[in-house]
Design goal:
Radius of gyration of chain B: 22 Å
Mean pLDDT of chain A: 85
Number of helices of chain B: 12
Number of domains of chain B: 2
Low-confidence stretches of chain A: 82-91
Helix content of chain A: under 10%
CATH superfamily of the largest domain in chain B: FAD/NAD(P)-binding domain
CATH class of the largest domain in chain B: Alpha Beta
Largest interface: A-B, 23 and 22 residues
Strand order of the largest sheet of chain A: 3-4-5-6
Oligomer: heterodimer
Shape of chain B: globular
Strand content of chain A: 25-35%
Low-confidence stretches of chain B: 1-12
Number of domains of chain A: 1
Strand content of chain B: 15-25%
CATH superfamily of chain A: Folate-binding superfamily
Structural class of chain A: mainly beta
């Protein structure tokens, strides 16, 4: 079981949350080419180390938040400030 | 759009080499051998500083690519590098199911070619790979699933793949252990029956390819980790990235120059691609599997249930091998979980209530590189000379022969064969995803 530090609910079982994906700023849709847009949609950094992620607290507070996780060791750091950043995106 | 090349069965250019093996295997030899050690079946030796092709990843895909490069195209100055041991990743962790009843015509043609190659693999490699074509049942628990099964069956039959929807009575006749009554929470309404599907001995496939490739001159280097990929002329500040050209690899045993580097890794595909300055549309998830104690043979077919996230087959030793869906969380951590074992057991008991006293022996997990369209990434990349055979998600083992064969053709001829044309990396930039989600073995 992995405990995810939700900034509103406190630590919760990861089964209660959804990993939305890597947190990345969305390019301006009106100023990107289709190729750039698809790169934003599909490409992942997918590191085996620290990465910024957007999470959705599905069974808890129902809010989006950004945190950092080490994908090799499943550790969290920098407990987030709470507000979902603008890049939070639904899948 | 890459050029169209030869596809399917025409790939054999008529200069096929037969490997000569260093050792002859037979039952009598086993008895006569006594305590003498077996001769090594692949060569290792020193890492040379130059090869024609360097393959990163000594799993079944890398070894198959090396074998077909050597046997079909005469390219033998090849090194296969693995940071661990041959077949230690996904090749040794999968559940060894082989089938071709996919949903898209592209997928069916591709995996059917793989099944054809598996059929004659034991002869080609002169090693018993224990391919058991025992039939494959994909269960439907809802009207929607039944409709998809019918769709798949028609696509399959149209392309000459033996596949048919059957009802509960026929399912019960094939696999008496299944509960086909209306009692379970997810009753079995029907199934897609695919008689050519089956299981195979995955380690034998790995060793067979390694031995055959080594006999043709390919070098295997275990415990050789690729630390960086050398490129020049790329769009990035460090000469990496699209538009560049690969010149070699840096390993923990020294630098190697090579005009062609092939990424055949699973689980580390994104990390190897990043060394060449590329980002792939891949996120890595663990998939857990488990095996029970061995019992008498009672399960004559491979049984898959997408709704219940389980697939099960009985090995020739009598153990039940279970696999599940990928874990929902993207991570490189392969630690198993009790939640998995609990959920898996519950689902298996839904299908076969008679297994209540069976005990799990062990569970493990492997890394799956998931792409957005549940299809692999094969072929050339924007970095000249850097090829990929990655993104194999949960379906890599069954595709190894065809992926190796077609990628070898792609590397040797410089043209992208028809069979892998739908699966090139460029499909994401061009917006032509494959959409194989409906036929992934287990709901993702």
């Amino acid at each position: 079981m992995l405990l995810v530090p939700c900034p509103h609910c406190g630590p919760r079982n990861s089964a209660d949350l959804t990993l939305v994906g890597e947190s990345e700023s969305r390019p301006d849709p009106s100023a990107t080419t289709p190729v750039e847009w698809r790169a934003y949609l599909y490409e992942e950094h997918n590191p085996a180390g620290w990465t910024r992620e957007t999470w959705y607290c599905r069974l808890g507070c129902g809010r989006f938040f950004v945190t950092e996780r080490h994908r090799g060791q499943n550790r969290f750091r920098n407990p987030p400030l709470g507000a979902p950043d603008e890049s939070a995106r639904r899948r | 759009m890459a050029r169209r090349g030869t596809g399917g069965a025409e790939v054999q250019p008529g200069r096929r080499r037969r490997p000569r093996y260093p050792a002859r295997y037979s039952a009598a030899a086993l008895l006569l051998r006594g305590k003498r050690p077996w001769p090594p079946i692949w060569r290792s030796g020193d890492l040379r500083d130059s090869y024609d092709v360097v393959i990163v990843g000594g799993g079944v895909h890398g070894l198959a690519t090396a074998y077909y490069l050597a046997s079909n195209w005469g390219i033998t100055n090849v090194a296969v590098l693995d940071k661990g041991y041959l077949g230690g990743g996904g090749s040794g962790r999968n559940t060894a199911i082989v089938r071709s009843n996919y949903l898209t015509p592209d997928g069916v043609a591709f995996y059917d070619r793989s099944v054809q190659l598996y059929e004659r693999l034991a002869v080609d490699l002169n090693l018993n790979v224990m391919f058991s074509r025992r039939g494959h049942l994909t269960l439907a628990h809802s009207d929607g699933a039944l409709r998809t099964m019918r769709w798949r069956a028609e696509v399959n039959k149209h392309q000459g793949v033996d596949s048919e929807v059957i009802g509960p009575a026929e399912i019960k006749r094939l696999v008496p252990a299944l509960d086909v009554t209306g009692a379970p929470r997810y009753p079995i309404l029907g199934a897609l029956h695919h008689p050519p599907g089956g299981i195979i001995r995955h380690d034998a496939v790995v060793w067979g390819y390694a031995r055959a490739a080594a006999a043709l001159g390919v070098e295997m280097h275990q415990n050789t980790e690729v630390l960086d990929i050398a490129t020049s002329g790329g769009s990035g500040s460090d000469g990496k990235g699209p538009g560049g050209r690969v010149t070699g690899v840096r390993t923990n045993r020294g630098d190697v120059s090579a005009p062609v580097v092939v990424n055949c890794t699973a689980g580390w595909a994104s990390l190897i691609a990043a060394m060449a300055g590329l980002r792939l549309p891949i996120s890595t998830h663990p998939l857990q599997a488990a095996v029970t104690e061995p019992v008498k043979m009672f399960l004559p077919a491979v049984v898959v249930s997408g709704s219940l996230h389980v697939y099960v087959s009985q090995t020739d030793r009598g153990e039940l091998v279970f696999g599940a869906a990928v874990d929902p969380l993207a991570t490189y951590d392969t630690g198993g979980s009790l939640a998995f074992a609990e959920e898996l057991s519950g689902h298996v008991l839904q299908l076969m209530p008679g297994l209540g006293r069976m005990r799990l022996l062990r569970q493990w997990s492997g890394l799956c590189d998931m792409t957005p369209d549940y299809s692999p990434i094969i072929g050339p990349t924007p970095v000249d000379g850097f090829h990929c055979d990655v993104g194999w998600g949960t379906y890599g083992f069954k595709a190894a022969p065809v992926a190796g064969e077609q990628l070898a053709a792609c590397i040797a001829s410089g043209e992208t064969p028809d069979l892998i044309e739908p699966f090139t990396l460029s499909r994401f930039a061009e917006g032509r995803l494959v959409g194989e989600k409906g036929a992934a073995a287990v709901g993702h």
